[in-house]
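User: Teach me something about this protein's shape.
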Amino acid sequence: MSPELGRLLLDLLGRPYRLAMGLHALDLQDWLVVTADHAAEVAEKRRLLDAGADIHRLLPEGAAAAAETAALVEAHLATHAPAVRVDAGIADPLIRAGLAVQEDLCLLEGSPEGYRLVGAFVAFPSRWSLAEKIGRPMPAIHAPVPGLEAAIGGPVRLFFERLQADRPVWRVNWSLTDDPLLHQPSSAFRRTATEVTAAEAGRQLWLRVERQTLRRLPRTGLVLFTILTFVEPLASLAQDRRLALLLADRLDELPAAMLTYKNLATRLPAITSYLRAAAAA
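Assistant: First, the predicted structure itself:
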């Protein structure tokens, strides 16, 4: 497990579950992360793009922000990761930026209905479709998440209205999946959960963690949302007794509707039994 993922997991699991934004102030020097998997993940992005995967969309109203995003990405890499190559021959700025970093990139523009997704380079979606989300406002994008609008819909809207260019933030999101692939569009979603046993859960499941950042673009005023995805075998996490117990506790706290949404309702007893047994070993 990478040190970056270990830090994210402690932040994610170290407090009782509640549906919240969980925002932290972001130092812009830490905005983009280059891990040991950078070359492999960028190569996978390029492979998906060359194969015609639907990973890039840009509406006309997002064009100026896409150019601003590319300039910010290139400037950040030049300062903080000079060994990373940016392909200057790629004309589309959002593709150029997306193929330079591990993060996926989303552009959000304010509208009366809420902030709308007006551009994206998303190679590693977590079981959602870019074609279905482009052009839609945040409330519609997040509608499948049970209880989200009632719990934090208002705070989310207020956050986007008040976000300042000099006060970026980061947060963490997570899921457990039976597929280790980074590229998981909604078409890959398995509606019937694979049976998981307490004896084999560590081999059958992976923890998928997203390090997300949000920043207001200073020139165009749109919001840039980045997503860096980590996929770790559950067995790897279970080697850390503290993390194993923390994850078991957080899973036990999930409401029934959230367990169903995360495809965990029938798997929960096996997963928590596995984690607690691993911690006790």
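Now, about its shape. The longest helix spans residues 63-80. The first strand starts at residue 24 and ends at 25. If you'd like, I can walk through any region in more detail.
User: That's plenty for now, thanks!
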